Amino acid sequence: MDCRSGSVEAVAQALATVPQVATVEHMAGGRDLLITAFVPGLGELSALLLGTIAVLPGVTATRAGIATRLYGEGSRWRLRVLTAGQGEQLRTAAAPPPRSGTAVPLDGTDRALLPELSRDGRASAVALGRAVGLSAPTVRRRVGRLIADHDLALRCEVARELTEWPVSATLWASVPAERLPEAVRVLLTLPEVRLCSSVTGPQNLLFTVWLHTVADVQRLETQLGERLPQLVLRDRSVVLRQTKLMGRLLDTRGRVTGVVPVDPWAGSHSAGA
After folding, report:
1. What residues of the chain score a pLDDT lower than 70?
2. Is-contact 173 205, C-beta < 8 A?
3. What is the rounded CA–CA span in Å between residue 165 and residue 160?
4. Strand-pair partners of 85
5. What is the spatial distance between Cα 37 and Cα 18, in angstroms, rounded to a whole number?
6. 106 in helix, strand or coil?
7. How many CB atoms are closer than 10 A to CB 258?
8. What is the pLDDT of residues 47-105, one digit of tens each?
9. Quick one: which of 88, 102, 245, 255 has the most CB atoms within 10 Å?
10. Are the beta carbons of 26 and 17 closer than 8 angstroms?
11. Which residues contact 134 (CB under 8 A, 6 or more apart)?
């Protein structure tokens, strides 16, 4: 989205309070703000854009792209500071429980439980049960099922300036439809790529990277040109600051100052519905 001069910070802070808005980023190049939102459907997306976002003082334009398929996201990304043995031990310990038959559709209780998990992923089953009116054993069973069905992903974030990857950027590209699977396979092998998704709009592929320096944006583009000649980069933006990341409110150094739980169904769900 684009904002009137001098209003970007106020708009970012207002967006950070919206439960459907998971991430708010101040960008350099092509747009003032880039947000990631989770909603149940297209009607809810329209309501969010027209009834909540477009009416914010200072917002001058919005452009929406819908993720049609998510190939990789932050929970799969690694800092690459562990040894091979440590990495294998982590993968074994974090392996989700096996699927048990057909995935179960989310019900109202699930939709109430997920924002509570977003609020505090370390909360005990007793505390979660108290919040949504369930027993602790029932919470444990439901959380296990949500993880097994990939309705819930576990991830641990870190302030980027504390790592060797202090720069984040988002790139938009066009790839012929028949070459998209190949392009995705290559992108997901690159250590810089955190998120990769097909999207609607003028470009059909979006991916987010963490880099060592701003100059690495050019290096990465050169590397992509060599390995994926069918991929044409159309746009790129570097993150200047993250105001909100997956529900966490951040200060200018990337440290957590609060939380607004991610809730795609905000205002519409009720336990047992």
Report:
1. 94-97, 99-101, 268-273
2. yes
3. 6
4. none
5. 9
6. coil
7. 11
8. 999 999 999 999 999 999 999 999 998 877 877 777 878 878 877 776 666 765 677 88
9. 245
10. no
11. 109, 113, 128, 142
